[in-house]
């Protein structure tokens, strides 16, 4: 009697599907996200979240720096977005709208 070995097909994890240079990608996205947080807070928030996902891909020093940069960009983007909403709300009452 011949038996076949059935191998389980494992689902690809996030870490295996990310490219090998995800630390560098995360670092670059962190720099761009900080700049974008001042120009367009929503874009900075989105880029920093993408950078945080890429920083989980590997455990290098560059990846850790990227994680810090993306965290700073996320905080700056949220603060500026909140300030923009407050400013827009308060200025609308000044101009009678």
Summary?
The protein has 4 helices and no strands. With 97 residues, the chain is mostly helical.
Tell me what the structure shows:
The protein is elongated. The model has no long low-confidence stretch (mean pLDDT 84). The protein has 97 residues and is an all-alpha fold. It has helices at residues 14-17, 22-39, 41-55, 61-94. It contains four helices and no strands.
What attributes does this structure have?
97 residues; 4 helices
Q: Which strand-content bin applies to the residues?
A: under 5%
DSSP strand tally = 0
Total domains, how many? 1
Number of helices: 4
> SSE string, helix = H, strand = E?
HHHH
SSE topology sketch:
Blueprint: H1 14-17, H2 22-39, H3 41-55, H4 61-94
Helix pairs in contact: 2-3, 2-4, 3-4
């Amino acid at each position: 009697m011949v038996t076949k070995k059935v191998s389980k097909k494992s689902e690809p994890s996030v870490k295996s599907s990310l490219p090998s240079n995800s630390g560098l990608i995360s670092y670059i996205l962190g720099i761009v996200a900080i700049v974008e947080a001042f120009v367009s807070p929503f874009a900075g928030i989105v880029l920093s979240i993408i950078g945080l996902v890429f920083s989980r891909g590997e455990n290098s020093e560059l990846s850790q720096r990227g994680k810090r940069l993306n965290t700073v960009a996320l905080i700056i983007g949220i603060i500026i977005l909140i300030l923009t909403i407050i400013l827009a709300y308060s200025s609308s009452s000044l101009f009678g709208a």
